[in-house]
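Late entry, LLP complex.
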Amino acid sequence: GHPHIAHRDGALHVEGVALDALARTHGTPLFVYSKQWMLDALAAYQRGFEGREALICYAMKANSSLGVLRVFAEAGCGFDIVSGGELSRVLAVGADPKKIIFSGVGKTRAEMRQALAAGIACFNVESEAELDVLNEVALAEKVRAPISIRINPNVDPKTHPYISTGLKGNKFGIAHDRAVQAYQHAARLPGLEVVGIDCHIGSQITEASPYLDACDRVLDLVEAIEAAGVPIHHLDFGGGLGIDYNGEVPPKADALWQQLLAKLDARGFDQRKLVIEPGRSLVGNAGVCVTEVLYTKPGEDKNFCIVDAAMNDLPRPAMYQAFQKIVPLRARAGDAPTYDVVGPVCESGDWIGRDRALNVVAGDLLAVLSAGAYCMSMASNYNTRGRAAEVLVSGATTKLIRRRETMEDQLRAEIDG
Ligand code: LLP
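Prediction complete; structure with ligand written out below:
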């Protein structure tokens, strides 16, 4: 599961770099990412699409740090953005606007103008009302906005309810039954240019079947939409491929795409341009969060291992009861009592792992694994905690890509008196 993150000579390494030395230099909590891991993950998708016209748009919400974006931009990757802020970030690292697509249910007029001015490849429109507003904004700017409509294929991705998005009854996309009508409406609006169709069924999906089902439903719709006179140039299947947090074995990106391409070919869509929006599967397992044990606290019911990372750094356990492995940087010989690993934040929900066998004393360093996606990008300043530092590792070289947030950084926007 983690080819570039492993114990060597008794110490946990990211590529050629021992994490304990890095933690001494930069302090904790510290996020550390393997560049090679990201490039390998991207290469699996690229292999899957070999010989096809396909655009891989990294869903940068998973990890939007400039140093991470730069890795993908330099590898020729496109980007899926969900805000004007994400657009600014990705333009700052030199991304090609022609490889940027814009998702999200609540785009503002200002964000639409910003994206039109940049000349992005496609807006993934999520409602009929948004079609009308985007049309207005584009006409006022004297341009045509390239659009896809996100349709809701109503398949169950079999994942956590908070991260499943392709079922009826959630806020995303346009219902299957309304899709043809919505496309006909879009085609009549002079400020819009229909370029594609889009879907995204959820996140941390560990089976191929929901993708194959969604693919069939999307292709059915494309046939109906084209029969109604609206040509669809590209097919966007969203993101959502899961990673190994605790022994899950999701399909490999290239294998999944071999299956999907076979289906596309069998149904006569072999020439169609493809777009995907993977986030977690490109960065999730590339990162760890190094944290120091502050105290161990034996209790009647439970033992607590109190660490210096918290729900503001690693929000996934608190938000989704998510599991992330926790391993000592250096193993100690002897018995491993069972601990709940918790942070310093004043909430019972501030836990990182439950019932973990760990042989640790105060001062030891632990790594929370699979911390490359949806950790730093979701970090907050709750409890007036500064956000962690981040280091990108490539071979034996390390680069600080974000310094630890200072108190001055935190107070910058505030007005006192
Ligand atoms: N495209 C769209 C329209 C999305 O909404 C998302 C993620 C993606 C692509 C990328 O999905 P991925 O390949 O990363 O699964 N914070 C949650 C995950 C939220 C996912 C939001 N949308 C978590 O930590 O599990």
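The chain has twelve helices and 21 strands. Will revisit in the morning.
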